[in-house]
Amino acid sequence: MIPSIRETSPVQAQYLAFIEALKACGFEGDLNPDYANRTVLATDNSIYQVLPQGVIYPKNATDLVRVAELSNLKQFRDIVLSPRGGGTGTNGQSLTDGLIVDISKHMNRILEINAKERWVKVQTGVVKDQLNAALKPYGLFFAPELSTSNRATIGGMINTDASGQGSCLYGKTRDHVLALTTVFMDGSECTSHPLDKQDFDAISQRQDRVGELHRVVNDIQKEHHAEIEAKFPKLNRCLTGYDLAHIRTEDGQFDLNSVLCGSEGTLGFITEAKLNVLPIPKCSALINVKYENFNAALRDATELMKAGPTSIETVDSKVLNLAMGDIVWNTVEEFFPPTAGKTIQGINLVEYTADDEETLKANIKVLTDQLDARAGDDTSPSIGYSVAWGSAAVSKIWTMRKKSVGLLGNAKGEARPIPFVEDTAVPPENLADFIMEFREVLDSYNLAYGMFGHVDAGVLHVRPAIDMKDPEQEKMVRVISDKVAALTQKYNGLLWGEHGKGVRSEYAPAFFGELYPQLQRIKATCDPRNQLNPGKIATPHEHIKLAAIDGVVTRGQEDRKIPVQVWEGYSEGMHCNGNGACFNWDPKDAMCPSWKGTRERIHSPKGRSSLVREWLKQLSERGIDPIQESANAKQQSFWKSLYGRTKNTLAKRRGEYDFSNEVMESMAGCLACKSCVGQCPIKVDVPSFRSKFMELYYSRYLRPLKDYFIGGLEYMIPTLARVPWLYNGLMKPAIFQKVTARLAGMVDSPLLTGVNLDTQLQQLGLRYAVAENIRELSDEDKQRSVIVVQDAFTSYFETQVVIDALKLLKSLGFNPLLAPYKANGKPLHVHGFLKAFENTANNTAEFLNTLSNTGIPLIGIEPSMTLAYRSEYQKVMGDNAPNVQLLQEWLATKTDSLAEHKDNFAEGDFKLLAHCTEKTNAAASMKDWGAIFTALGQELSMVDVGCCGMAGTYGHEAQNVATSKRIYELSWSQTVNADENQGKLMATGYSCRSQTKRIDDLQLPHPFQVLLGQLSAE
Q: Which end of the chain has fewer beta carbons closer than 10 Å to its terminal beta carbon, N or C?
């Protein structure tokens, strides 16, 4: 490896000067010209990749006025600005080679909720689900529903006039906008809302950009009313972007918001929004209608609409099968029972809502009677149905449907379903015929594809599978796009049903026809120099062209610069498609703690994937093979390489630039909790490629001392445990803690218990799982035996947890054997000691496999260490990885035996805080805890919390302490300190228990300790 070289081009110099000028004029937000931020925001959820010159995060509207006014100075009139929210666009809407203005980081406050009048005022960086969480206590919600609702901002929804499931009832975002506050490029501000004649006359007299825009839009409406009426189709979706058809409201008021909604940041910076909100339906149900033929599902949707549902969504077999292989299926499987002898090729999800159960059941009965009547008919398009009752069940299914968007990107192979013709809208009665011809186009190119969408609105999302790294396959984007555009017009539809135009604005002149010059008039009025998101929606002048779908750099063009063997060697991060699931707003969701704790996009799975891809590309362009370099790193001598590593480290401290250092900053912030592996629809595995990167990085730079301490702890600890007084004596005093923090970068180090397991086993009448002891077991004893695999953390820092687990198992009639201690190696993997980890894994696997070959099952207490055997170990040795189950996975298979002991347990009601790795990478095992507690007569509920912020040793590393505690505050602190939870909480993870002890001085028990306590209370 050699350092990346950062050169400043004249264009970059101009943008750096602009950023410096912003700083000088008092800009209060964040200014980020660094390459890492630029790289991460070079992509969205589209096929495109455009490197911006910088990223700025305004703190408030005043910052945006500063940006606008500065852009009017002569030396900055070429500066390009692109507003950005959640970055979930599928058409490159917010991508730019200029300056990205991201309002989501700071401008995300809910300003006012007026429950009585049913409106809310928000800054436009607020996330849709964040808003609905705040509205829920009032029984209200913001209606437009999106598959990306947990990360899409209100500003993004306004700028794309977004809609989704339920739009036939609730309409689009525009239908719920009461007022918008916008900063225009001359620095003027305006709060727009429907105006009567007197108010319009007053505002149109203004001699700034605001007054001029009102006059121009009004003139367009008057002069072209007939053409607008004829050109705009009468569809639920209408035409996104400068919606001329709704300049006048039904009662004749002038509404500028119809132009601003869907404008994709091409007219101004929308800073605040006043929105209409609605009562949450009190009752809901979902009928899942199954089909053997997807076309039958599409055609049947029109018939199902006659039964008056709230909405109808459809998914094809490809999407359904991907969902079945994802963590999300554990939550919805019960609602999709198989039909004997039938293969499901499509499903219609038919939702009903009502304000009372009686009305809901009556409405549901209309459709179920219809479905029952045709059940025995061989000509029936459907092959069965099921009903999910209640908002909780309905929400689970809609979550699965939402995730289908991202799941399509997780197809096998290099050809992945991608969005470029995905949100066409046609009259619902034309949908089946339209899709038939659409499929003929795709089939003619032998393309695989997935389909899902809103059949009630005539919108279907189609994602053809193309390997964009292949130049020949990339050409199909143009060919297919042209054919689909023509096909859409043939069926009186729209090319942009709900996701906005973006780069696909190229087709706007063809769809708008003679009205397109009027869109240009609007653009020229607001942005005469074409500085705001140029190339999208419309241009200010005829001689300026719109962006072209094959004229913008794609991710595939950049990715093909990475050699195949390198791509495959880092495959865990290569297929991120930018869907942004890792930007999930919900603090009670495990994904992704470092993003939630910092609100910096470089500290997210998407950010880290983007950075490692750029790093690999840079290495490849310099003729460096990181796979070979990694192999060399495993062989290099520590002492021989010391000089080079020291030299590079000193150069780094002097400020010499190396892009690797920016990548390292991002990787170092990862908690390695593996929530990305379980929750990312693409299965991006940050801890795996992070370890590979760190291995190579530290072959060039000196490692911090803490890494050696953490990596070696599993090996040192048996020796240290013999003299716990010495270890604890060094770790406990405040003065030594300061020394440890300064020298080793570690804080709040856990203390050894000093409890001798050998003695405890003897007192319990139990034995170690060694060959001699196992041979002495009778067949009957073997049947009730289980081997408990030790880990360093519980065995030495929480020894009582191990003892209590053994006690409980024995009390339940089992014969627990304790496996002799062996290092697991996970800390080594986390910190990129891959050679040492491979050696440890091979050695420990051989030992555990010997135990497994006895026929006695192996179980582990600590979730993250136990799950390493089925993840990190499998990457090293494949099928030879040892089979070690989680405690609950094994015990849940013994519920009949457990039930025999039920009467020995006092009744109890408890709440479980699960380890984030466990609940995202072994989701099914969460139900196992329920089965165990139920069998023993206990009430158990799962508490929704995100990550505790500790994640192994992350929270003990001095550089991470502040973020660790901030993550804990997001969801754990409130839960742990809630009065109703006192005495009921328990935690499965060692790190979780450590964090609650450290921050709240509360020792949460392990579930087995709780059960043991209930047994003792009898």
A: C
> Tokens 């796979």, residue?
627
Choose among 457, 566, 955: nearest CA to 747.
Answer: 955
Q: Which amino acid is at 932?
A: I
Give me the phi and psi of 395, to 5 degrees please: -60, -40
Q: In sequence order, what DSSP letters do the residues of 449-461 get, joined into one string?
A: EEEEEEGGGTEEE
**Preceding peptide of 592 cis, ω within 30°:** yes
Q: Nearest CA to 30 among 596, 601, 652?
A: 601
Number of H helices, E strands in the chain: 48, 27
* Cβ 948 vs Cβ 671: under 8 Å: no
Q: From 93, 22, 12, 20, select the one nearest 52 (Cα to Cα).
A: 12
Which candidate, 866, 868, 876, places its Cα nearest to that of 836?
Answer: 876
Token pair for 276: 């209409």
Backbone angles phi, psi at 453, to 5 degrees: 160, -160
State the burial class of residue 720 (Cβ atoms within 10 Å of its Cβ: 0-12, 13-18, 19+).
middle
User: What CATH architecture applies to the domain 281-410?
Assistant: 2-Layer Sandwich (3.30)
Q: 456 is written with which tokens?
A: 């009630």
For the sheet with 119-123, list strands across it: 110-114, 119-123, 269-276, 177-183, 189-192
CATH 3.30.70.2190 in the chain: give the residue spans. 281-410
> pLDDT tens, 72-126?
999 999 999 999 999 999 999 999 999 999 999 999 999 999 999 999 999 999 9
Enumerate the H helices of 41-144 as residue ranges.
61-71, 128-135
Could you tell me which of 80, 1002, 192, 1015 has the C-alpha nearest to residue 530?
Answer: 80
